[in-house]
Amino acid sequence: MSSRRFALISIATLLLAGCDKPGAGSGASFKAVDITGAEYARTLSLQDPDGKTRTLADFKGKVTVVFFGYTQCPDVCPTTMAELAQVKKSLGADGERIQGVFVTVDPDRDTPELLKAYMASFDPSFVALRGTPDQTAAMAREFKVFYAKVPGKAEGTYTMDHTAGSYVFDAAGKVRLFVRYGSGADALAADLKTLLAAG
């Protein structure tokens, strides 16, 4: 996916985020976009590769980073997940309180087995979630995430355009931040440390 297209997707997402005027009264200074109090990204309910339904409540007590992507993504998805794994490791013992969650926007190709292997390649504690096409669309609406199939040059092939950013939830399960793709590991680590310190 082109950097221009990613920029447009990120801008569109941030414009949508701005409609809710979040962030007021959060009291903390973050590197990422503060969306504390947003009226979206409040629920998440999809199945993990073992068929168990997972919700945001499952991750309470941890600072959770949710990213929508797909396993055949050539750049943004693996870069984002690798960066999160790097940050988690850099936090030492505090890293155990970081939870990565990957939501596929390509359930047709991302089988449970493939998702499990994909997460294991970054961090075995990271969780992949998958739904039916309708469930995926519903979760994308809830998070104001854009995604669409882009036909490939060969017949029957395609890639996926999708929002290039992550949502960060505090230990109480409340959405707090939207992290733009390309913000860097140092900025993410600083924000996660702030949320971890807040409990």
TrEMBL record:
<keyword id="KW-0479">Metal-binding</keyword>
<feature type="domain" description="Thioredoxin">
    <location>
        <begin position="35"/>
        <end position="197"/>
    </location>
</feature>
<comment type="similarity">
    <text>Belongs to the SCO1/2 family.</text>
</comment>
<feature type="disulfide bond" description="Redox-active">
    <location>
        <begin position="73"/>
        <end position="77"/>
    </location>
</feature>
<dbReference type="InterPro" id="IPR013766">
    <property type="entry name" value="Thioredoxin_domain"/>
</dbReference>
<dbReference type="GO" id="GO:0046872">
    <property type="term" value="F:metal ion binding"/>
</dbReference>
<feature type="binding site">
    <location>
        <position position="77"/>
    </location>
    <ligand>
        <name>Cu cation</name>
    </ligand>
</feature>
<keyword id="KW-1015">Disulfide bond</keyword>
<feature type="binding site">
    <location>
        <position position="73"/>
    </location>
    <ligand>
        <name>Cu cation</name>
    </ligand>
</feature>
<dbReference type="InterPro" id="IPR036249">
    <property type="entry name" value="Thioredoxin-like_sf"/>
</dbReference>
<keyword id="KW-0186">Copper</keyword>
<protein>
    <submittedName>
        <fullName>SCO family protein</fullName>
    </submittedName>
</protein>
<dbReference type="Pfam" id="PF02630">
    <property type="entry name" value="SCO1-SenC"/>
</dbReference>
<feature type="binding site">
    <location>
        <position position="162"/>
    </location>
    <ligand>
        <name>Cu cation</name>
    </ligand>
</feature>
<dbReference type="InterPro" id="IPR003782">
    <property type="entry name" value="SCO1/SenC"/>
</dbReference>
